[in-house]
Automatic annotation (TrEMBL):
CDD domains: LPLAT_LCLAT1-like (cd07990). GO terms for molecular function: acyltransferase activity. Residues 87-212 form the Phospholipid/glycerol acyltransferase domain. Belongs to the 1-acyl-sn-glycerol-3-phosphate acyltransferase family. InterPro entries: Acyltransf_C, Plipid/glycerol_acylTrfase. This is 1-acyl-sn-glycerol-3-phosphate acyltransferase epsilon. The chain crosses the membrane at residues 14-35, 352-370. Keywords: Acyltransferase, Lipid biosynthesis, Lipid metabolism, Membrane, Phospholipid biosynthesis, Phospholipid metabolism, Transferase, Transmembrane, Transmembrane helix. It comes from the Eukaryota. It holds the Pfam family Acyltransf_C.
Length: 372
């Protein structure tokens, strides 16, 4: 019975971060709303600068739990620039944690506030978060024939005109890769084969539309493309392989002791601008992730299937064990946690808190409905 209690307690490790991350959302939204009202008559760049700082506070709390709380060992391969840049971040997509990996890299460049996402359209209905991500520069897109490139171009152009710093995160596969989703993988491989493209094994065939629109709209604003390959190690006991990457709760329960991140910086001048050429270029980048076609970088295939045990569970080349200081992330936990606690201690504060969840969600959804 005692053993069962211990195991159950361990499996509930995600409760503390879950309560704080979700519980402080109304506090954060109230702070942002206050700034939005106060800055109504101020220059857009000033509003954006403070919004980026507010975003840093919340995301540093996220990183406290996903880095410091879990104790995950982060191994970086490649030369991550230490300075801020305007970039498009392209990565393979396996888990909800992938979004946080982008934050991890941005934080190491002091660019966390500049992170903005290209998101699936249905995520805009998330309570509070869906509305705020759109206000912070997130772009919601629909798949396939419903993709509205004009709307995306207009939004990105407004950011370029305003000189908004951009760390735009895109997952070109369009959905998460899972080894157990054989139908999805087979359909992706059939699509590639029909078009004469290399058939990929550990990633899905990348889609070009969002990446091309983003690059074409911001090419004079960008410094580089970041090509990132992520591997979660240790989700399956006694093996470097896994059936599926960890979910957020599994990650918070320390089921991923090591996180391998391979980084390539590609100068924007090296990226073809014409859509068909970019489509080929993007597929080749994903082919590099999947095969040994460039400088023997068998990124994912080498990672899993190498016959040499010494070469398994790591990318080719040297890695750097990267740690994010607790001093950088803990203050955010204390600030947002304390403000939320103070609000919940009074009856009026509790009413404001509940009202923010309820009416903030309703007004956010209504905003999307009217905008549509």
């Amino acid at each position: 019975m005692l053993l069962s209690l211990v195991l159950h307690t361990y499996s509930m490790r995600y409760l503390l971060p879950g309560v704080l991350l979700l519980g402080s959302a109304p506090t954060y939204m109230l702070a942002w709303t206050l700034w939005r009202v106060l800055s109504a008559l101020l220059p857009t760049r000033l509003y954006q600068r403070v919004d980026d700082r507010l975003y840093c506070v919340y995301q540093n709390m996220v990183l406290f739990f996903f880095e410091n709380y879990t104790g995950v060992q982060i191994l970086l391969y490649g030369d991550l620039p230490k300075h801020k840049e305007n970039v498009i971040y392209l990565a393979n997509h396996q888990s909800a944690v992938d979004w946080i990996v982008a934050d991890m890299l941005a934080a190491r460049q002091d660019a966390l506030g500049h992170v903005r996402y290209v998101l699936k359209d249905n995520l805009k209905w998330l309570p509070l978060y869906g509305f705020y991500f759109a206000q912070h520069g997130g772009i919601y897109v629909k798949r396939s024939a419903k993709f509205n490139d004009k709307e995306m171009r207009n939004k990105l152009q407004s950011y370029v005109d305003a000189g908004t710093p951009m760390y735009l995160v895109i997952f070109p596969e369009g959905t998460r890769y899972k080894a157990t989703h054989t139908k999805l993988l087979s359909a992706s491989q059939a699509f590639a084969a029909q078009r004469g493209l290399a058939v990929l094994k550990h990633v899905l065939t990348p889609r070009i539309k969002a990446t091309h629109v983003a690059f074409d709209s911001m090419k004079n604003h960008l410094d580089a493309i970041y090509d990132v390959t992520v591997v979660y190690e240790g989700n399956e006991r006694g093996s470097g392989k896994y059936s599926n990457p960890p979910s957020m709760t599994e990650f918070l329960c320390k089921q991923c002791p090591k996180l391998h991140i391979h980084f390539d910086r590609i100068d924007r001048k090296e990226v073809p601008g014409e859509q068909e050429h970019m489509k080929k270029w993007l597929h080749e980048r994903f082919e590099i992730k999947d095969n040994r076609l460039l400088l023997k970088q068998r990124m994912l295939i080498e990672f899993y299937d190498s016959p040499d045990p010494e070469r398994r569970n790591k990318f080719p080349g040297k890695s750097v064990h990267s740690r994010l200081s607790v001093k950088k992330t803990l203050p955010s936990v204390l600030i947002l946690g304390s403000l939320t606690a103070v609000m919940l201690l009074t009856e009026s504060g509790r009413k404001l808190y509940i009202g923010t969840w309820l009416y903030g969600t309703i007004l956010g959804c209504l905003w999307f409905v009217i905008k549509a």
